[in-house]
Amino acid sequence: MFAPVMGLSAAPQIDHAGALTRALVTRAQNGDAAAFGELIEDHYDLIYRTAWKWCGNRTDAEDVAQDVCVKLGGAIAGFDGRSAFSSWVYRITLNAVRDMQRATSRRGKYADAYAEVSPEDQPADQEDAATSRQLWAAVRQLPEKQRDAVLLVYAEELSHAAAAEIMGIKEATVSFHVHEARKTLRGLL
């Protein structure tokens, strides 16, 4: 039996992706358009996926994603690194979704929260898809903080701590919002 070598198991893990993102952010903040383009390319799926989950349809999600990319160009200089870049991008995306929803509400239009089920889907898949759409449509009707907590935790599969960082609240508050959302959803579904 061999004795473990001290220090080897306690070596710090190197976060190569995080280091690359930090380097790209620094370069982008200094005016490097190629670095900014790479940041957008690396984070576009996150932006679009988040917007789609909050909006419920492709057209609005595309509009929000484009808006976020433009906003990032103007805001990148103000990123101070106190949070992860992806958390900062989430916050900007959530704010853009809210801005779009407020503008839509003011014009009296309502986003269609239901995606079309394609005819080639199998009946069981259609039923599952319909149930899933109904659930997410109900989630989108929750009060803002409950909706954000549920979507970050369940749709984005983030921990309560990561959701708290993005939302700018305590982890226990995220847990409270998720709990309240569950109670509300039981009544809606």
Structural overview:
With 189 residues, the chain is mainly alpha-helical. The chain is built from eight helices and no strands. Helix 2 runs antiparallel to helix 3, helix 2 (33-55) packs across helix 4 (85-106) and helix 7 (160-167) packs across helix 8. The longest helix has 23 residues, at 33-55. It is globular and about 50 Å long.
Multimeric state of these chains? single chain
- Helix/strand order, N-terminal first: HHHHHHHH
Got a strand count? 0
Figure out the total of helices.
Answer: 8
Question: What percent of residues are in strands?
Answer: under 5%
Largest sheet: none
Radius of gyration based on Cα positions: 20 Å
Distance between the termini: 58 Å
Q: Which residues form runs of ≥5 with pLDDT under 50?
A: 109-126
* Morphology call: globular
Structural class: mainly alpha
Average pLDDT number: 80
How helical, in percent, are the residues?
over 70%
